[in-house]
Amino acid sequence: MRYPFKHLAAYERDDNSFYFGRDTEKKELHRMTFETDLILVYGASGVGKSSLISCGLANEFESYEWYEISVRRGNNINDSLIEKLNKAIGLEHKETDIIELIRLLRRKCFKPVYLIFDQFEELFIIRNDEEEQQIFYANIKKILSLNQPVKIIISVREEFLGYLYDFEKEIPQLFSHKCWIQPSKIKDEKSNIVDDILKGIDDIQDDSFVSIQDGDRENLSKELKKMFQEAGHKTVDLPTLQILFDEFYISLREGNDFNEKVVFSIDKLEKQLQRNINAILWDYIERIVKILVNEKKIKSEVVWGVLLELITEQGTKKAMTEKELIEKFPEHDITLVINFFKEKAEGKEKQDDILNQIKRNEETYWELRHDALAKCILDKLSEEVRLKNLIRQKTKERDPFIHLQLT
Question: Are strands 38-43 and 150-157 parallel, antiparallel or unpaired?
Answer without folding.
Answer: parallel
